[in-house]
Amino acid sequence: MVRNPSKKLLAIIIAFSALFLIGAGFTFSKVFAMASGTVKSKDGKPIEGAKIILIFSEDGTKYEVTSDKKGNWRKANLPPGTYTIGFMADSYEPQNINIMLSAIHENKPIDIQLLPVPESPLSTGDLLYGQQKYEEALQEYRKVLSENQNLYEAYERIGLCCYRLGDLDKAIENFQKVLEKVPQSRDVLINLSAIYFEKGHLEEGLKYFNQLDEKSLTDPNLFYNVGVLLFRNNQTELAGEYFKKCLELDANFVNSYYQLGLVNLNKGDMEGAKRNFEKVIELAPESEKAGLSKKILENINENSPA
Fold first, then answer.
1. Using CA atoms, how far apart are residues 292 and 295, in angstroms rounded to an integer?
2. What CATH architecture does domain 119-212 belong to?
3. H-helix or E-strand containing 83?
4. Which among 157, 164, 183, 287 is least surrounded, fewest beta carbons within 10 Å?
5. 272 CB contacts (<8 Å, ≥6 apart)?
């Protein structure tokens, strides 16, 4: 007698199917880790708004979160693995840690204490300088420098005070002392070039300005101001080059188009002058420069050959 195997076979199929589904679930489901903790000051006060950046070492993916009023933070749905975590807050020194985050075990809270940024010995002088008390700031900076001759930043501050007080030679002397320590100090090179331009020493001013890496200069005003100084000193051709560099950074810099128009007039390039003055009117039709441009254009057209 042959037994009907259908019931037994069905049970075996169901059992194998269940095992397959369980296995497939473990194979294709993704597991995540969770990180949390607190950010506090050295004296235990919570730091609100601290930025916590978690960078996954495996592929460099960045995750970001901020701390709440109690200094607490939490980030879920993280792939397990090694992370570099950075903690940053205003007026505090940043801190980095490396840590392994697990998706199987609960990760311990990451409690961080940030140290305050040390107060600069120049802060009192900086406060006075910001209040335009240049003589008092100068005395404060000199006092700090007498206590620490290696604090080259003080020379820069003294140079700024001397400039504000009209002592250009003393300003130059102190700025040059900074360059002895930091030859490529961007701000000092700019200040030295500006002072020499102001003194009418164009060649010396350009010597310092040309030491700057133009690719690092993102303020179009720098090129514009140099162009104006050169133009005032009858360096028309060179002035035009700086106005063009200004426009490369800001194609809507109205005053640079106006100055380029004046450069064109000085060179006798009437077509170039027309283009630049028309651009001024296009960009700022109600401005003073637009009014002047219209008058210049009328004069050009009146004197153009029929």
1. 5
2. Alpha Horseshoe (1.25)
3. strand 81-88
4. 183
5. 260, 261, 264
Q: Which CATH superfamily is domain 33-114 in?
A: Immunoglobulins (2.60.40.10)
For residue range 97-128, list pLDDT tens digits in order. 999 999 999 999 999 999 998 888 999 999 99
Residue 305, pLDDT score: 66
Q: Give the HSE-up count for residue 60: Cα atoms under 13 Å, Cβ half-sphere.
A: 0
- Structural domain boundaries in the chain: 33-114, 119-212, 216-301
DSSP result, 227-258:
HHHHHHTT-HHHHHHHHHHHHHH-TT-HHHHH
251: tokens are 């194609």
pTM score, whole prediction: 0.58
Cα angle: 182, vertex 116, 36; to 5 degrees:
120
Whole-angstrom Cα distance, residue 86 to residue 101? Answer: 15
Separation between Cα atoms, residue 24 and residue 21, nearest integer Å: 5
Question: Over the stretch 244-278, which tens digit does the pLDDT of each residue have?
Answer: 999 999 999 999 999 999 999 999 999 999 999 99
